[in-house]
Prior knowledge:
The chain is α+β, with helices and mostly antiparallel strands. The protein folds into three domains: about 5-195, Serine Threonine Protein Phosphatase 5, Tetratricopeptide repeat, CATH 1.25.40; about 200-325, Orthogonal Bundle (Arc Repressor Mutant, subunit A); about 335-385, Orthogonal Bundle (Arc Repressor Mutant, subunit A), CATH 1.10.10. Helix content is about 55%, strand content about 10%. It is built from 18 helices and eleven strands. The protein has helices at about 5-15, 15-25, 30-40, 45-60, 65-80, 90-100, 105-120, 125-130, 140-160, 160-180, 180-195, 215-220, 245-260, 265-275, 280-300, 335-340, 345-355, 360-370; strands at about 200-205, 205-210, 225-230, 235, 240, 265, 300-305, 310-315, 320-325, 375, 385. A six-stranded mixed beta sheet has the order 2-1-9-3-4-5, sandwiched between helices. A three-stranded antiparallel beta sheet has the order 6-8-7. A two-stranded antiparallel ribbon has the order 10-11. β7 (about 300-305) and β8 (about 310-315) form a beta hairpin. α4 (about 45-60) runs antiparallel to α5 (about 65-80), α5 (about 65-80) crosses α6 (about 90-100) and α5 packs parallel to α7. The model is unreliable at about 390-395 and about 400-405 (pLDDT under 50).
Amino acid sequence: MDLVIKAAARALAAGDALGALNGVALRDDAPALALRGIAMAQLGDLPRAKALVRSAARAFGAKDAVARARCIVAEADIALASRDLGWPVKKLAAARATLEAHGDRLNAAHARYLQARRLLLIGHLDEAERLLDGFDTTLFPPASSAAHELIVAGIAMRRLRTKTARAALANAQRAALHAGIPGLASEVASASRLLDTPAARLIERGEERLLLLDEVEALMASNALVVDACRYAVREKGIVVPLATRPVPFMLVRLLAQAWPADVPRDTLIARAFRMKHADETLRARLRVEIGRLRTMLGALADIAATKHGFVLLPHRASEVVVLARPVDEEHASLLALLADGESWSSSALALALGASQRTVQRALDALASAGKVQSFGQGRARRWTMPPMPGFATALLLPMPLPID
Length: 406
């Protein structure tokens, strides 16, 4: 490796993209193309960066397997930054294996970090944890350690383990300061602020108040019966009844929980759960059927008793019944939670992260755009969607997560 390439590589490692370009901007050999691509990625020109890194991979060819593997990792990094979650995961895993086999532990670790971060974005927390399990970051540079701790914190926040999240973010902050990369320090600071902003809204006996993430964690460990309107489930002391695929029963149990210990009139339940203004005998019969199904779903957690005017929720053991709602009411909250990271997303990446069809996501995006809540740029496959961060609210409880919820 010549001196110019070494100097450019050192500049990139320190976050000095312009300094790196000064040395390699006019060169078209494979190492220079790779460094130019990484520099353009740091400057935010992701399409140009992707093209340069791909050209570098072709230029290195099969003879230089390690350099080509590094280019594949760089391309995956650029794809993740542009929220293109559809890039070939197996290709990245093969590149990581090549780097590990040739002793390039630093770039292999970065490939592992990219795999874990993608899994975190699409809500596959168990797989992300398994990938990081037993991973020792003490031998790696501060920037790599900070990136690792950010993923640990992200998983912990989604799991409602705030003590673990705070410790990981403290480690990430120290590593980011040691690395001296402003962008990394800013990312850590942004993640840290999530722990000190409202994450949910508690509705209890007709009164509401905002909760921080550690307060939500304490609530989940309490003796209360919690109707979780962030993750669409009913919880009590580690027992979870997922209702994300059962919107009518969930609406019924939420209405009953919000009114507890009072009952809810039948006409109110019909109007809210079935979206009908006038109740007739057919709707009353349907309500009885849905209430019966809900009783079966709740099992040992609670019963539902008929009263003169409606129905009332009767918890078996819990001393309190509360509703944990989103900090702000929004029909497409999970979609907005993804967009709130400030990055630009394709509709296909959003569909993959949410586990929904691209057509469904596109309809939601169009509705949000009409309301001025999101905006797009580009055309066709290059079209991307973005929004400013949700002001004053954390979004960890709104992000997608596979069911059943643990």
